[in-house]
Amino acid sequence: MVSEEHILEENMSPFKPDETPVVIRAFAVFLLAGMLEVGGGFGVWKWFREGSSLGWGLLGMGVLALYGIAAALSPLEFGRAYAAYGGVFVVLSIAWGMAFDHFRPDVRDWTGAVLILSGIVFMVWGRR
């Protein structure tokens, strides 16, 4: 079980105690935050780097604001949540690039992603 010092006070979390294991809650928040951050960043990238319409940039900025809110839903404290989330961000960035920008990762990309995911497992599951 995760000690109380590593979890936000229950009245600050949108989840009820013991409703879902902390690891599952954290991972769900990481996925939501990652999709918002990568998607929002992609919109800004399209506008700023590739000359797409300002609408892309504004949409991206709005989605990035939602990312900040979603990341705050993590049941972990700030430092651990953002450190572990960073790894999820890397993997989602690779997946987003493949799906929407014709990115083709090589062996080094996949090896790095596996190493990063291993670190997340160690950081989050190590608290049990």
From TrEMBL:
<feature type="transmembrane region" description="Helical">
    <location>
        <begin position="107"/>
        <end position="125"/>
    </location>
</feature>
<keyword id="KW-0812">Transmembrane</keyword>
<keyword id="KW-1003">Cell membrane</keyword>
<feature type="transmembrane region" description="Helical">
    <location>
        <begin position="82"/>
        <end position="100"/>
    </location>
</feature>
<protein>
    <submittedName>
        <fullName>Uncharacterized protein</fullName>
    </submittedName>
</protein>
<keyword id="KW-0472">Membrane</keyword>
<dbReference type="InterPro" id="IPR003844">
    <property type="entry name" value="UPF0060"/>
</dbReference>
<dbReference type="Pfam" id="PF02694">
    <property type="entry name" value="UPF0060"/>
</dbReference>
<dbReference type="InterPro" id="IPR037185">
    <property type="entry name" value="EmrE-like"/>
</dbReference>
<feature type="transmembrane region" description="Helical">
    <location>
        <begin position="56"/>
        <end position="76"/>
    </location>
</feature>
<dbReference type="GO" id="GO:0005886">
    <property type="term" value="C:plasma membrane"/>
</dbReference>
<feature type="transmembrane region" description="Helical">
    <location>
        <begin position="22"/>
        <end position="44"/>
    </location>
</feature>
<keyword id="KW-1133">Transmembrane helix</keyword>
